[in-house]
Amino acid sequence: MTTNRVANLLRRRESPQRPTFLELFFDLVFVFALTRIVHELVLDYSRDHVAETLSTSLSENGETLLLLLAVWWIWTQTAWVTSKFDPFQPAIQFVVLATMLGSLFLAVAISGALAETGLLFASTYVAIQVGRTLFFVLTLRGNVLRRVNMLALVWFAASAVPWLAGALAPGEVTRNALWALALAIDYLGGRFGWPVPGLGRAQVSPWAVAGEHLAERYWQLVIVALGETILTSGSSLLRGPIVAERTWALTLSFLTTVLLWRIYFYRAGQILGEAIEASADPGRLGRSAELSHLLMVAGILATSAGFELVLMDPSGHARPAWVGAILGGPALYLAGRSVFEYVAFARVSRPRPIGIVVLAAMAPVMVGLPSLWVAAAAAAVLLGVAVSDAIRAHGRPLEQASPPR
To answer: Are 11 and 160 contained in the same domain?
Structure first.
């Protein structure tokens, strides 16, 4: 490509930084992907030997976490692409739609990725990362971003080896270890700028020039995750008799989803872009924002799995692992929200850590109680956090972004 044609692919600083309809369209695949991950979590918790022991359930969840981290990295890298490049350009639309198709196959493979569809999952993941990065290496001649993609290509090619080897490995332990190694390579590469001996590392941070765009993309992902909770709960109700207890469970699931939404968007959720712009180190702050959203999305998915278990048997005695999901999901969400609040304001308000402590303290007492009661207790804690936010903000001017220095 000529220099002018390469320049046309890039987002201009003066152009609107709002996400486009193409990016919203892209997110539709991730509704399906997150639904499959929740399904895997429910299967983990439904196994008798897992449900009765919290430590065993955490081990099983660790395998599902590998799948979530792979899906998360695909989404994050795509958000980076659309923050740097103009989504209205046909070449960029091709890249996003090709990634969307690959992500659909990735989501399909999730249900058996730890067994019969492991090779499909791993090979699709590798094809997306290597293929997309190679595309930019070939098209960005004469632009600094070409070097970034060349460095990233080395790392994605390196991680492809344990990804594919793990898919072909005969045992679960070997496969999980190799996939964990592959994810470590991918995440550490991105964290440190894909350093390559003799070539150095990338110095370009997407947060430095597109904080507003990436902030809104994370808002949209949280909405996608919350939407998955509503979809899963509604579908679960239809898989059994619509009786009073199950109707109450669905209502409680909806109220919990509303509380998660309220806690996210007030107030840090509204000003992430401003916090990034005001930061002396947008790249570092952006990475913290990414971690906080990963924790929050994981918490939302665990909460969704917990409510599916509640809808299966609202009056049944909650097993230890079920309590771990029903209470642990909101606790993980509050932990991520605490990091997010620190990103925006350089402080963490007390209701969030207090809520985490209360949820943890309730867990041993809740084992054996009706699962609907456990879900109600979790919702009560979230309500307490939301009400405390409202009381603290009442009558005061809206708090402005004040990121850590």
So the answer is: yes
